[in-house]
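Re: the request from the purification team.
They wanted to know what the chain is likely to look like in 3D before they choose a buffer screen. I agreed to run a prediction and write the result into the notebook, where they can find it.
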Amino acid sequence: MRTPRQAARIVVLSPSGSVFLFRENNIEVGIHWLPPGGGMDPGETPEECVRRELREETGWTDLEPQRLLCTWEHDFTHEGIPVRQHEHIYVTAGPHREPVLEAPGIHWQWVSPERLATLGEPLWPPRLPDLLAGAQAGPVHFGLVT
């Protein structure tokens, strides 16, 4: 049985279309790329979560979630606990800049749209290049992705 966990992330797009991502290494998942974000605190909305996480992980306080891009669920182990994480993924536009804060051991990078499609390592959420290139009318709800 996996513990339910709510999370939210925010995809930051630069004026040139590059995406700000972290490269992480999870013992279960391995190396993967993902936008800033994380678990929601009790009583916190997804929008509040992405604002807080963006501030904690980059020091940026001037960006707001503009629209919900997608939702998805996935299973992994978080701090030794098997979880089924439901994520809200938002998108926003922002300047191409370095983080004000840099957490030790976390590698970040602005990734061009061309490179995003050919990273060669898993990317969370799934199909991110397609989602950013598409003109879908509203958010895509993937459900459980294994």
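For the purification team: Helices lie at 46-58, 113-116, 128-133.
Please add any questions underneath this entry.
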